[in-house]
Design a protein that fits this description.
about 500 residues, alpha+beta, seven-stranded mixed beta barrel, 15 helices, about 30% helix
């Protein structure tokens, strides 16, 4: 255990005697098992961290989460989103959770924040949960304004040394388009995302691009009970309801440590609808088209202009991606700039699962990662709820193109370059065929995965949810129909004409 936690047992006894948060009853307090909570003495190696999260969080089980907060905090989360026009303006506050329980692990004083970039006013908000945040966390009672929670030094130290089975944060994901009692579209989005993250992981069975684990976030089904307390009173917390969510792994420093043993990653988010797009004069290579997330392992402060410019130098600088890409004209030269296995695996997944809301399709979502040791750029899959043709012909609009080279409505910086080189285009079509074999020719096939999700996850969670919150199991058939049509077309995909 680290210095903050290398304390005698009496610390935890004394810890119980303190109020663990604003106006919390000590009778409600509990201290979590140190093994499940505390960071170890030395930083955990990437492999150990991967094994821990894989065995405890992303282990194929349906988890149960309980969140208890003040009713006024819940109300304010919604009010702030409406004030901001339902968009992420970077001003969302971390709010105080009185209790967080994950299966049998209970924590006091956890932080929660609304996540997402748009459509943030819906009742089924998506959240980020932080287990180690002790500063900048706000609470509220009744009609009062936000008040920052002030923790004593020992309590703050204990919180800041805390993880959930190795994760400092996790996301609770539900799409704006998912099936629920509010604005029910019946599209079964949780199942789509759960299957899509699995399908993205299967690309590693074709060509390994990481040391371990897939270049996509992991997900797990969970039932979440929300419990609200009136005026901070422990005996008035009977307003509650349950919903199904996906636990999602954050793409943070821990993600890169687990996959690449890289503790100082440089990454760029592409959730701005213009990433990797060749137009608008800039060529799509500017902020916020590629929004810096981490630079040399440090999270980017958006107000730090110097750091922003330094990060963007990786893209537009003399030795940046744009110039290096422009100078590459052969497969060998391009392979020195891009991790071609990473790009081809990503494209094989995106075109097979219909990940059009992406850097591959409409220039939105996913993460661009600079792997410093090799000086090559890789792609990480993110936000795959709109998959299996959701958003295309399934909603009455024009169907997305089935031709991998024509899925976007504008030139694409990385993929058009790759497909323009005949040797790489042929290599990609072979990669696509190998990926389809992985998805369809084994016992662990895409068809069986969809049926398994329907029977093991959707039906199981539906048994514990109110009628209006149940997922539509018939949507599994739509996913199967799409997958069947997709493989037939892609297996006969003609080579695109020479430019």
């Amino acid at each position: 255990m680290n210095k903050k936690l290398t304390l005698p047992v009496y610390f935890f006894t004394v810890f119980l005697s303190f109020s663990l948060g604003p106006n919390l009853s000590s009778a409600q307090s509990s201290v979590q098992p140190a093994a499940a909570m505390a960071r170890p003495d030395a930083p955990m190696p990437g492999k150990e961290l991967w094994d821990l999260t894989e065995s405890k969080l992303f282990n194929g089980q349906v988890h149960k989460i309980s969140l208890r907060m003040n009713q006024a905090v819940w109300n304010r989360l919604h009010e702030d989103e409406k004030t901001n026009g339902c968009r992420n303006l970077g001003t969302a506050k971390w709010a105080h959770l009185r209790d967080f329980t994950f299966n049998d692990i209970a924590m006091k004083d956890v932080a929660i924040r609304v996540r997402g970039n748009s459509s943030r006013c819906i009742p089924r908000l998506q959240f980020t949960i932080s287990f180690d945040k002790a500063k900048g966390v706000y609470t509220r009672q009744g009609p009062e304004d936000w008040t920052e929670v002030k923790y004593s030094e020992p309590i703050a130290d204990a919180i800041e040394s805390r993880t959930l089975h190795g994760l400092e944060e996790l996301s609770l994901r539900r799409s704006f388009n998912d099936s629920s009692s509010e604005n029910d579209s019946g599209n079964g989005m949780l199942a789509r995302e759960f299957v899509a993250t699995w399908a993205a992981a299967k690309t590693e069975d074709v060509a390994r691009t990481t040391l371990r684990g897939p270049p996509v976030y992991r997900t797990a089904y969970t039932l979440v009970e929300f419990q609200f307390c009136t005026d901070d009173a422990d005996n008035v917390c009977d307003n509650r309801f349950s919903r199904a969510y996906l636990v999602a792994e954050p793409i943070d420093k821990g993600f890169f440590k687990m996959r690449y043993d890289d503790e100082k990653p440089t990454i760029f988010s592409m959730a701005n609808g213009c990433a990797l797009k060749v137009e608008r004069g800039s060529g799509g290579f500017t902020y916020p088209c590629l929004e810096p997330g981490y630079l040399d392992g440090k999270k980017i402060d958006k107000d730090d202009v110097f750091t922003l410019l330094k990060a963007l130098g990786h893209i537009t600088g003399t030795d940046g991606l744009k110039n290096r890409l422009g100078a590459a004209s052969t497969a060998q030269e391009l392979g020195k700039v891009l991790d071609l296995d990473s790009l081809m695996n990503y494209a094989a997944f995106a075109t097979t699962a219909g990940h059009w809301d992406s850097a591959y399709g409409n220039f939105n979502n996913d993460v661009l990662y600079f792997h410093a040791p090799s000086r090559k750029w890789k792609l990480i899959v993110w936000d795959v709820d709109n998959t299996f043709d959701f958003g295309g012909g399934s909603r009455g609009g024009p169907a997305h193109s089935y031709t991998y080279a024509e899925v976007a409505d504008a030139p694409r910086i990385l993929f058009d370059k790759l497909f323009s080189i005949s040797a790489l285009d042929a290599q990609f079509r072979k990669r696509l065929g190998n990926y389809l074999t992985v998805l369809y020719a084994s016992e662990d096939s895409l068809k069986n995965r969809i049926l398994d999700v329907r029977d093991r996850y959707i039906m199981k969670t539906n048994d514990e949810l109110p009628i209006g919150e149940r997922q539509n199991i018939q949507r599994a058939q739509g996913m199967l129909d799409y997958a069947r049509q997709r493989v037939r077309v892609l297996r006969n995909q003609p080579r695109p004409p020479e430019p």
